[in-house]
């Protein structure tokens, strides 16, 4: 508490600063300064209780399930989308399994909108802006070069980008610029 705050308390209770400092914990706990104390009110008896349903800063819904629940965090809350998927599967979702929201709305936790994925790589695939890159687990088969030279190359390079030509086989126009042949 600042000196100004102590002075206000001292003026209000007509006591000296030293008295306030020694009695401050008792005064705060009794609710004398703060009004009706909510410190002993829990859950539905507290004015801030929202039914055990809160929204995180990242936009996900947390549900109060208790500390003994397999999906609970250290406060006794679990993500609603993980609870819904667990109910659909008939088992608890594993820690390495991820849940993808098909419409990207984190508040929309209906069963039709949720998709369980087995890894982070697979989950990141659904959030890619460039969907023509190699999918997780997809085979990298050999294809013919588009310039009709008869050479073969892998469908994707080592970064998962699609390939159409062997290096140096891209067709050029009269100005020397590469032409995008589809």
What does this molecule look like?
The protein has 182 residues and is an alpha+beta fold. The protein has 3 domains: 1-43, no CATH class; 53-126, no CATH class; 134-182, no CATH class. 23% of the residues lie in helices and 13% in strands. The strands form 3 sheets. Strands 1-2-3 form a 3-stranded antiparallel β-sheet. A two-stranded antiparallel ribbon has the order 4-5. The chain has a two-stranded antiparallel sheet with strand order 6-7. The longest helix is centred in the N-terminal third of the chain and has 14 residues, at 17-30. The mean pLDDT is 77.
Overview in brief:
The protein is built from 4 helices and 7 strands. With 182 residues, the protein is α+β, with helices and mostly antiparallel strands. The strands form 3 sheets. Strands 1-2-3 form a 3-stranded antiparallel sheet. A two-stranded antiparallel ribbon has the order 4-5.
